């Protein structure tokens, strides 16, 4: 049976770039992997076919030979070296080993790559989170807060190296400084964190007696945080370099302060808008009047209540709300009237209200409209 064209196997065009060849192989490898195709008896052979195609096309020299001579350029299928006749000669090779090479080529950048050791990149310290509660007044004006944060700082005794007396860490003999070890499992070469150095690539033969080789110690830091005006619950403030110290001289993480603004007894907030519910007497709502209301800056504003006001009526005080967090002016405050029904009436007060009720039947338009609609509804149900 003749072999299929390698470009057709990977589902790519003949002029495909190296990146397109890699993407085509990744797609086919996921589709055809035997573990995902237990009910397909041809999956393994198709998977090997895709692997063979990629092994050739990923290599510029092999690809050039294939583009010129096709499958005739290769006597042994996968792998090999240039032969005397201008083609490529070589054995069929072990499939697992071949796939291991392909796996390294695809994912080497993420798994640390191939090759020798060298000093590994320093391990960055963890970021920290601090929940800070403030009042609405502090959110309005902004404030300076001093916070105490338990964290890990660089060890002063060994200057963060983790080694005693200025000695230097040595390359880990197990992983040769890579921080990872490899093991062959079927088709795959699996990389794991080195158990000897825990991924650091180095070991300390003479650890610091203060930090026990970690290069950092636990300590509580006192920090000053600037809380800008306009913050609200959920606002996040980043303090760069104020997180945990890195392991063995690695860079320091960051501290993130999450703001939580406490509920206020007078004001409710929606972004830059403040709401204040103000109770007014039934008489003031009917006849109109003035009411003095507080503002978040500690001041007072006099508001005129229109004659015949109902509960829920709102009046706007411009510029009396919260400041925008990153500029953009000041929000407004909305005054919402709540008409209060009197309680614990005297006999005389009840008598006066009863007389008022008799004289004001035509002064309640909403009541008249409602009960007129109710009568029409009942009449329609009878019909």
Automatic annotation (TrEMBL):
Binds 2 Zn(2+) ions per monomer. SMART domains: DnaJ. The keyword Chaperone applies. The keyword Flavoprotein does not apply. It is found in: Cytoplasm. It comes from the Bacteria. A zinc finger (CR-type) spans 142-220. Residues 5-70 form the J domain. Pfam families: DnaJ, DnaJ_C, DnaJ_CXXCXGXG. Keywords: Chaperone, Cytoplasm, DNA replication, Metal-binding, Repeat, Stress response, Zinc, Zinc-finger. Zn(2+) 2 binds at residues 172, 175, 194, 197. Its cofactor is Zn(2+). CXXCXGXG motif repeats lie at residues 155-162, 172-179, 194-201, 208-215. Residues 142-220 form the CR-type domain. Zn(2+) 1 binds at residues 155, 158, 208, 211. Belongs to the DnaJ family. Participates actively in the response to hyperosmotic and heat shock by preventing the aggregation of stress-denatured proteins and by disaggregating proteins, also in an autonomous, DnaK-independent fashion. Unfolded proteins bind initially to DnaJ; upon interaction with the DnaJ-bound protein, DnaK hydrolyzes its bound ATP, resulting in the formation of a stable complex. GrpE releases ADP from DnaK; ATP binding to DnaK triggers the release of the substrate protein, thus completing the reaction cycle. The J domain is necessary and sufficient to stimulate DnaK ATPase activity. Zinc center 1 plays an important role in the autonomous, DnaK-independent chaperone activity of DnaJ. Zinc center 2 is essential for interaction with DnaK and for DnaJ activity. HAMAP family: DnaJ (MF_01152). PANTHER family: CHAPERONE PROTEIN DNAJ, DNAJ HOMOLOG 1, MITOCHONDRIAL-RELATED. Homodimer. This is Chaperone protein DnaJ. It comes from Marivivens donghaensis.
